[in-house]
Amino acid sequence: MQTPLADRIRPTTIDEVAGQRHLLAEGKILRKIIESGDIPNLIFYGPSGVGKTTVAKIIASQTGKKLCYLNATTASTADIKEIIGEIGTMEASSGILLYLDEIQYFNKKQQQILLSYIENGDITLIASTTENPYFYVYNAILSRSTVFEFKTLSSEDIAALLKRAIKILSEEYGKEIGANDDSINKIARAAAGDVRRSLNMLELCIMLTINEDNVEVSDEIVEQILDGNSVRYDREGDAHYDIVSAYQKSMRGSDPDAAVYYLARLLAAGDLPSACRRLLVCANEDVGLAYPQIIPIVKAAVDTAMSVGLPEARIPLANAVVLVATAPKSNSVYEAINTAMGDVERGIGGDIPRHLQNKHFDGEDAEIKGQHYLYPHSFSMHYVNQQYLPDNIKDKKYYKFGDNKNEQSFKAYWDKIKK
């Protein structure tokens, strides 16, 4: 079986790589690292089809290290241990370079297994991810790696690559393959920055005409290939992440028209999970206590959408999206939990106050006998003033009432009781 065109014309040198000039042009930092031959742990972040794997393979070919490849979507802990078992062997005497594709699918334990070997240099890690590594990669690995963002290729970059591919295909088929600039540019634009997708489309165009005497990638053939298929490219192509971001930011920014438009883009691409996930996040993060009833409403809409599937799912989701976009907004709880999580991660806090502990007896060393917990329901208005936070942060304020009507009514209620 013939290998895909994307693999047959894969660049073998940095100068052949399409796009990514901000990383690979003369004098740019990633190029300097590659040319030095001293490769640190690297994380390549960006959408699919923009050259992450290609650059990783070029680096591997220049290091002299044994190249191991894992795809985190299918790799197991046993696969990791098998690679670790090769450390120090004759075959891996110069070390191991592990290319880990889609690292975001490795759980924390799997990433932790690699950590000590990355730290002592037995394994050099080059990981790629289509998700933001600062959210999905274990912090200890992240802190020991250099992150480079690969960006969407321009249609001009892809058009140049398509012309190179046509020359290679002409040699393979032993006949001249013609293609005018308009046809090439249409394919380049429809691919939405994804090199692999553009090459697959080109190859399909040629396969449909290769038995003819004069092989021509005509506008008519290109239109047939693109008809009904171009919208799906957004789902996993480079623009997908921008659309998802714009979708949530439009709801947060209270623009129902933009929010519904980006919802339509996601659904046209068949990406129901992303549409539902971001909607749930936005209801909690951006509306929150300004309208807390919205959370079960949105959850019900999402459950309905997932039950009925597309195309009917568009209706409950559109209802929920417009509701979130037009609802009052508050991120007070979002800010509170982020601040609290920050303190916990930095080790700020201390022992839980004695009267809150789950203890019902005192040791001989206890200076004060008895737990002395005050049960709020035994007091007027079900409230009594007592300390809940540890001593060294007892006066810390994480939650601040938002300025919306709902939270201000809560504030007025508690101001009255606590005074």
Structure, described:
- Helix content is 50%, strand content 8%.
- With 419 residues, the protein is α/β, with parallel strands linked by helices.
- The strands form two sheets. Strands 2-3-4-1-5 form a five-stranded parallel β-sheet, sandwiched between helices. It has a two-stranded parallel ribbon with strand order 6-7.
- Helix 10 (181-190) packs across helix 11, helix 14 (239-252) packs parallel to helix 16 (272-287) and helix 16 packs antiparallel against helix 17.
Which properties best describe this structure?
419 residues, alpha/beta, 5-stranded parallel β-sheet, 20 helices
Strand content: 5-15%
- Spatial strand sequence of the major β-sheet: 2-3-4-1-5
Order of helices and strands: HHHEHEHEHEHHEHEHHEHHHHHHHHH
The radius of gyration is 28 Å
On the 0 to 100 scale, the average pLDDT is: 83
Describe the SSE topology:
Layout: H1 5-8, H2 21-24, H3 29-36, E1 42-45, H4 52-63, E2 66-71, H5 77-84, E3 96-101, H6 108-119, E4 123-129, H7 133-136, H8 139-143, E5 146-149, H9 155-173, E6 177-179, H10 181-190, H11 195-207, E7 215-217, H12 219-226, H13 233-236, H14 239-252, H15 256-268, H16 272-287, H17 294-308, H18 314-326, H19 332-345, H20 405-418
Parallel strand pairs: 1-4, 1-5, 2-3, 3-4, 6-7
Helix pairs in contact: 5-6, 9-10, 9-11, 10-11, 11-12, 14-15, 14-16, 15-18, 16-17, 16-18, 17-18
